[in-house]
Write a structure and sequence with these properties.
An eight-stranded mixed β-sheet has the order 4-11-5-10-9-6-8-7, with helices on both faces. Strands 12-17-16-13-15-14 form a six-stranded parallel β-sheet, sandwiched between helices. A three-stranded antiparallel β-sheet has the order 1-3-2. It has 26 helices and 17 strands. By secondary structure, it is of the alpha/beta class. The longest helix is centred in the C-terminal third of the chain and has 19 residues, at 624-642. The structure holds adenosine-5'-diphosphate and magnesium ion.
């Protein structure tokens, strides 16, 4: 199963249905009156695998640990216990197992027999030993219980007004059920941590030499510049004493004058000046601080972490070939993004750094071979990397620069447990950069757990960034009219146009693309049921312009960078408004303008209000039907609140209520 299907499962339904039947009151639109005008005024508007470096760190760790059961690598460590003790390990509703798994990073399974059972501990030897030790602590004591384990570096504390305030670590709220001596466990955990990170080479992080021109900038000038540049806001999230926030750089020289090879690369690719996120992120990251970068898609976030990362890796005191593994790890949600970041990395080919992409669906053997043959940068999806990590095929101990790219997306895709396990194996004093296009609670929690006293740079507002370089058209239509709209749109495409068509389900992607093929139109499709090589080919064909129409599921909605997409066509409305913003962001990239067309049906009424909000903020026209739809939805919600019993009632009850009010279709 691919990482993408993990998210969507069997049911890739776009939007939940409204609970009423209704008659569309949108303007009846026939094929003939669909004209190009509403599609917008065009775009006007080297490490040896078996060598001593590779193995030594694990052997050394084993030596210092207590002589407990030695599992063969790659196999479960088994503890046989009688059933009463097994019960303790499980805890109420599995709560203790979950705590043990989280605490150790291992996966634990129970096989119960009549009188006794087995506790199977999976994972690399490190985490197995840790879990084994915790279980022994647990079953060997019977003292006071304590309700919570807090992960991460900060305690949840009381609610404050800081950017963290909505990020109470709910994940740690597990009910107390067994008598666990948490104090002892915590102390032992501390001991393990100390042993685990003993003998690490020292880490250098600060490589920033502020140029005179940057240092001279006055507070007022900097404030005005931030405002002009998409309202950049920078915040120091260190609690207690706040640090000075570095001034932005306006030019590439101001950031990298001391690093001529970086400058050569920038000149070679021909960029004129840093994007706003780069201007403000580079001084922060080069100073060695952790950073959270929030900015809409297509604003150059990749380069904002890659270039300082190159310098960081290059200037460590231990030479690259003596570190025993890669120095930079970039975690990213999808294979396509991983490949794109790899391309970006290779484009700059800094000092011959070798990078590798590790993702589910790719050739695992080939990936392992490369990983174990010595690389500097690993770009990975969390699922596959966790798999290699659990099987001791990758050494994360050498990582000093960690990037969580598109963190919001990784959370949406359910990667949090894998991320957590991966990070447990990375030295705690590393430098960490996290990027995201949005700042929801989950991302705050992730940031709070894995970043240390970060600075935050966000471009635009903390809310959804409305894509303002895209002319957005919304059409309220009926489901059965959709195909007519898309065919008409395609017929009216200009030769230089390139359209990305988003659909809600894989099957619709297949259906629509075969319909188009049958009409002799060259089209490619991209979704999670396609083989990886077909997905890569589809994307390449689209990038190179061999096809100018790509039909895709939300697999393509984030981060993908195809410069010349002129139109985004939302055939199905996305399942949430964030996805809408990401989809629309596929056009209007890197300062260009673009056009989006979105079909909205009565099924999508739930999101009408939020869509209006986005359109208004981006100064776009809001169709009246959409306003009416949002009003009807609000009214419906209010009715539900006023008559909760009826709204929970079955079909018969609802039918009676609707008849009483003059019929359900009054709503639409
Ligand atoms: P994001 O991660 O924010 O969605 P990307 O990092 O993928 O955006 O960048 C989008 C595109 O902009 C890429 O093709 C990248 O090469 C280009 N780009 C990055 N920095 C600059 C710059 N300073 N000037 C012009 N283009 C840039
Ligand atoms: Mg990106």
């Amino acid at each position: 199963m691919s990482d993408w299907e993990d998210e969507y499962g069997e049911d890739e339904g776009a939007i939940s249905e409204p609970s009423v039947v209704h008659k569309a009151t949108s303007k009846a639109t026939s094929n003939t009156n669909i004209r190009n005008e509403y599609f917008g005024g065009k775009r006007g508007g080297k490490v040896e695998r078996e060598g001593p470096q590779w193995r030594n760190w694990r052997e050394r760790d084993r030596e210092v640990k207590s002589p407990v059961e030695r599992p063969a690598s790659n196999r479960a460590l088994t503890l046989n216990l009688d059933n009463s003790l097994i019960g303790r390990v499980i805890g109420r509703g599995g709560a203790t197992i979950r705590e043990l798994e989280q605490s150790s990073g291992a996966r634990i399974k129970i096989n119960r027999g009549e009188h006794e059972g087995e506790v199977l501990i999976f994972g690399n030897s490190d985490v197995q030993q840790k879990a084994n030790h915790l279980i022994k602590e647990l079953i060997g004591t019977g003292r006071a219980s304590e309700p919570r384990l807090h992960y991460g570096s900060k305690s949840s504390g009381s609610k404050s007004d800081s950017c963290w305030s909505e990020s109470a670590p709910q994940a740690s709220a597990v009910s107390p059920s067994t008598s666990i001596d948490w104090k002892a466990i915590r102390e032992n955990r501390g001991k393990y941590e100390a042993l685990k990170w003993k003998d690490l080479p020292p880490l250098k992080k600060n490589f920033y030499i502020e140029s005179d021109s940057v240092a001279k900038r006055s507070t007022d000038e900097v404030r005005a510049w931030r405002k002009e540049n998409n309202n950049i806001f920078v915040d120091d999230l260190k609690e207690e004493v706040k640090r000075e926030i570095p001034n932005p750089v306006y030019t590439f020289e101001e950031a990298f004058a001391c690093y001529p090879e970086i400058m050569e690369n920038i000149i070679r690719v021909g960029f004129q000046k840093p994007t706003p996120i780069q201007s403000q992120a580079w001084p922060v990251i080069l100073s060695g601080l952790d950073l959270i970068g929030i900015a809409q898609t297509g604003t150059g976030k990749t380069l904002s972490y890659l270039l300082p990362g190159f310098i960081h890796m290059d200037l460590q005191s231990v030479p690259r070939d003596k570190r025993g593994g890669p120095g930079m790890l970039v975690l990213t949600p999808t294979r396509e993004l991983a490949l794109q970041i790899e391309t970006e990395c290779n484009k700059y080919s800094y000092k011959g750094f070798k990078c590798i992409c590790v993702y589910g669906g790719g050739d695992r053997r080939a990936q392992i071979k490369i990983v174990t043959s010595g690389v500097d940068i690993v770009i990975a999806t969390p699922g596959r990397l966790n798999d290699l990590q659990m099987n001791e095929l990758i050494n994360l101990r050498s990582i000093t620069y960690l990037v969580l790219d598109e963190a919001d997306r990784m959370l949406d895709m359910g990667f949090e447990p894998q991320i957590m396990k991966i990070i447990l194996d990375i030295r705690p004093d590393r430098q960490t950069v996290m990027t995201s296009a949005t700042w929801p609670t989950g991302v705050r929690r992730l940031a709070k757990s894995y970043l240390k006293d970060p600075m935050m740079v966000y471009v635009g507002t903390l809310d959804l960034a409305a894509v303002d370089t895209v002319q957005q058209t919304v059409l309220v239509v009926q489901e059965e009219e959709k195909k007519a709209y898309i065919f008409d749109f395609i017929q009216n495409m200009e030769p230089e146009d390139k359209v990305l068509i988003f659909v809600g389900k894989k099957i619709v992607a297949d259906d629509l693309s075969s319909d188009l093929c049958l009409r002799g139109i060259a089209v490619q499709s991209l979704h999670g049921d396609r083989e990886q090589c077909d997905r890569e080919e589809a994307l390449q064909d689209f990038k190179d312009g061999r096809v100018r129409i790509l039909v895709a599921t939300d697999l393509a909605s984030r981060g993908l960078d195809v410069h010349d997409i002129s139109h985004v066509f939302n055939f199905d409305f996305p399942r949430n408004i964030e996805e809408y913003v990401h989809r629309v962001g596929r056009t209007g990239r890197a300062g260009r303008s673009g056009v989006s067309v979105t079909l909205v049906t009565r099924e999508d009424w739930k999101l009408a209000g939020e869509l209006i909000h986005i359109l208004e903020r981006a100064g776009q026209e809001v169709p009246e039907e959409l306003v009416l739809m949002a009003e009807r939805y609000d009214k419906h919600q209010k009715e539900k609140e006023m008559f909760p019993a009826q709204s929970r009632g079955g079909r018969a009850q609802r039918g009676a209520r609707d008849r009483f009010r003059g019929g359900s279709h009054r709503r639409f």
